[in-house]
Amino acid sequence: MCWGPIPTPPLGWTWDNLMDEALIEANQCTKKNEVPVGAIIVHKNGKIIGKGHNAPITTSDPTAHAEILALRTAGAVQQNYRLQDCFLIVTLEPCLMCVGAIIQARIDGIVYGAAELNTGSITSCIAGFDLPFNNYKPWHMGGIKATQCSQLLHNFFYKLRK
Hints:
Residues 13-124 form the CMP/dCMP-type deaminase domain. The chain is α/β, with parallel strands linked by helices. It has one domain: Cytidine Deaminase, domain 2, CATH 3.40.140.10. It contains five helices and six strands.
């Protein structure tokens, strides 16, 4: 599923390879008993400038979603909160809070793995970029390595409920 023309991946990458990097971040969560979601920010020149994985439990911070942490890191690297010429790759469809941060950062595009049927705010529950007061709409595409991303979440919640 894609909104807008599919852009060329950043230099030296494929969308699948970038999702592999986000999955590496997501796997960091399993050691910390956090919901396994990982995100990276990559500049169009191919350099990964931000990484993050879910950490609201370990940090006691409800905003410590993978996307937010990756945006914070990338902003520090760029010394700017505006992240034009960058893409966000994340293993799970972002929530509304993260969509708001993406809008503020002016990320050029978002690639996500699994759809989030409970809180997904790109296409699943609400089209967050289509809200009438929104003044910025980045390109987005879902379903990249969706099976692997979903399986990681399934395995986590299966073990949690055992």
